[in-house]
Amino acid sequence: MNIFIMRHGQAAPEASSDALRPLTGQGRDETCLMAQWLARQVPVFDRVLVSPYLRTRQTWQQVSKHITGTQVECCEELTPNADADIAASLLLAYGDLHRQDNLLVVSHMPLVGFLVESLCPATMAPIFVTSGIAKIILEQGQAPVFNWLEGPHNVRPHYEQPCHLLGSLG
């Protein structure tokens, strides 16, 4: 199974609550860029788990324009200060049932970094840029393997198709 862990796109600094912070134009653009890049590798996500916060749901909306998701669920265990070990246990349990699937998790810092560390204890919690995506490979009978972590700043110079508002990425 391939587990893709994604941090939401850039969000507005303030809203009436943290849970209601929307994506900015740049957040939509960088998410679009990452989704187009990832679509070359992943044709479909068998399951998508998304934090209930507005910015993560909007991030998934942008990704879903390029990669479909068969089953999509909001998951309270993926909020910014959730317990990474509980979230990792949830992913591993899903992995035990669905070995051949591609799973996308859309969440927040610091949870995304701690989730990688919890799944792959030999890896220190990485720092995710906004719209950053990590890939973890989970094979039966083996420990999860941290494969890569990419972000819009790495992908953009190598990607030829423009996004809708890509000028906002600098």
Automatic annotation (TrEMBL):
<keyword id="KW-0378">Hydrolase</keyword>
<dbReference type="Pfam" id="PF00300">
    <property type="entry name" value="His_Phos_1"/>
</dbReference>
<dbReference type="InterPro" id="IPR029033">
    <property type="entry name" value="His_PPase_superfam"/>
</dbReference>
<dbReference type="InterPro" id="IPR013078">
    <property type="entry name" value="His_Pase_superF_clade-1"/>
</dbReference>
<protein>
    <submittedName>
        <fullName>Phosphohistidine phosphatase SixA</fullName>
    </submittedName>
</protein>
<dbReference type="InterPro" id="IPR051021">
    <property type="entry name" value="Mito_Ser/Thr_phosphatase"/>
</dbReference>
<dbReference type="InterPro" id="IPR004449">
    <property type="entry name" value="SixA"/>
</dbReference>
